[in-house]
Amino acid sequence: MYSRINPKIDTQICAGQRTNKEKTPLWIFRTGEENKRVMKRIICVIIKIYICGAENSCYIPQNYNMNYITKDPERIGQTGGTDMPFIGSKVSIKTTDAQKEELKKKLGQTIAILPGKSERWLMVELEDEKKLYFGGDDSAPTAYVTVSVLGNPDSSSFAKMTAELSKIYKDLLGISPDRLYVKYDTTHDWGWNGSNF
Known about the structure:
Order of helices and strands: HHEHEEHEEE
CATH topology of the largest domain: Macrophage Migration Inhibitory Factor
Strand order of the largest sheet: 2-1-3-4
Helix content: 25-40%
Number of helices: 4
Low-confidence stretches: 1-31, 61-81
Shape: elongated
CATH architecture of the largest domain: 2-Layer Sandwich
Structural class: alpha/beta
Distance between the termini: 9 Å
């Protein structure tokens, strides 16, 4: 998770560190109330001098892991976390390459329903011809979808996503919504590039 410091406050915190770009906001995570001011100043100076350089605009995760500092504004998340979603799809039917490509595209669009998520950091797994029984019956097309995310989006976002996924699987693969399960997993521990968020 990331937070934005007001440009005016940021200018005061980083006094002497900014020159002609005071209107450019610096983003860092807010610490506890008792040491917020001190930590903001320390992190601000570290980022400005050693990482951001002249561009003077950076983003840093809540655990201050310098490996994940980015200058990409798309990585700024909202409530519920930022990046790293995963969607796993298992269907009982055989799918063509064209269907797989279209399904991947649709899933990439659908993940944006969840606050702070985007296709840019989405990993997708597609499996077809799986032996799936629903109520002991495998005679009709069936699907099982898992959605894993960093953070904890509100349940209303999950409800909207389930509705959209049901429509996608019905329209694209002919799988009835009453033979589709969607499971949501949330976590605050997510590993990537040799470390955890």
